Amino acid sequence: xxxxxxxxxxxxAGYSDxxxxxxxxxxxxxxxxxxxxxxxxxxxxxxxxxxxxxxxxSGSNQENAAYPSGLCAERTTIFWTAANxxxxxxxxxxxxxxxxxxxxxxxxxxxxxxxQAILEYEAKQKEGIEIYFASVEGEIFKTESVRDLLPFxxxxxxL
Length: 159
Ligand code: THU
Hints:
Blueprint lengths: L9 E3 L7 H14 L9 E9 L4 E5 L12 H12 L5 E10 L12 H14 L4 E5 L5 E4 L16
Parallel strand pairs: 4-5
Antiparallel strand pairs: 1-6, 2-3, 2-4, 5-6
The chain binds tetrahydrodeoxyuridine.
């Protein structure tokens, strides 16, 4: 028997179609991207998280000469957020990625490890986090929860 899983995502045509709040998040992720430390991949990623108290926290990818010791922008941002605002819910997460100096328009989705890390905080806060991903220009994709990016997700219910 073959079964099918459907995921949902929204396509936003571009920056001008974002709400004011979403534009602030895009801008925060875009600014954070300028602080990416990516001397090995030359792929710069910025991330911004909107908290339920209205604050925006941002971060960028941080690489290392020992490659696996580096960290993606999303995990840099959500781990810092969770460490400093342990009881404040994360509402929206915006990620923008592109090769440095390049102007690309293909939305860059969070990697698998980041999806798993985001899922942990959705479970912790018992509420989904809207995930937006984009490149420096062009369409912006949005899911209402990381579960749409991670079907068959592994969580603590299996332990
Ligand atoms: N990267 C992120 O920061 N987020 C992702 O979701 C995809 C990849 C970073 C990791 C590494 O510094 C560079 O992009 C190339 O993989």
